[in-house]
Amino acid sequence: MDLTPVMERFVLHWGEMGARWGVNRSVAQIHALLYLSPQPLHAEELSETLSIARSNVSTSIRELQSWGLIHVTHLMGDRRDHFIAESDPWEIMFRITQERKRREIDPTLAMLRGLNADAAGDAGTPEESKKRIRELTNFMDTLTTWHDQVRHLPRGTLIKLLKMGAKVAGLVQRRRDRNR
After folding, report:
1. To the nearest whole percent, how much of the chain has pLDDT over 70?
2. Core vs surface per residue 26-62: b (16+ CB within 10 A) or e
3. Last residue of a domain, one of 63, 85, 107
4. What residue numbers bound the domain in which 70 lies?
5. Is-contact 64 92, C-beta < 8 A?
6. 38: CATH
7. pLDDT tens string 22-33
8. Domain count of the chain?
9. What is the DSSP string of 43-83?
């Protein structure tokens, strides 16, 4: 596949950003290329286009599949696996946040909940430390509850909510003022 200068800039930048987000550069570049590609690509095309070792492409494909960002498809007359990326930016964002929550936030929250239980009977842990662990646990509980609620909002509602931005805070404040 030949990349236009615009496509090349996108792929290179996505790779750089991926590295900053803790994602392997090759994984991010393959995702970018598949995202931009108008047709499914097979591993050899990915390897040749990006000048990445075939073994690196295979590993990267498995990683992207585990995130739910790409999937396999087959083309008539070609026995090779071809890959296509999810193209809906909202769905990409939801899949990434859901997977990061599962891999990073959920284990941390479970650990914090355990610490809270352990700290309750631990006379050696300073009260201020216990308080900070409780506050962090409550904060993360609130964020995960919010994430789960937002994830299930209809797309149109979510878009309207995001476009409202800070106006939401004003509505909440006015309602709070009325209830006083």
Report:
1. 100
2. bbbbbbbbbbbbeebbebebbbebbebeeebbeebbe
3. 85
4. 5-85
5. no
6. 1.10.10.10
7. 999 999 999 999
8. 2
9. HHHHHHHHT--HHHHHHHHHHHHHTTSEEEEEETTEEEEEE
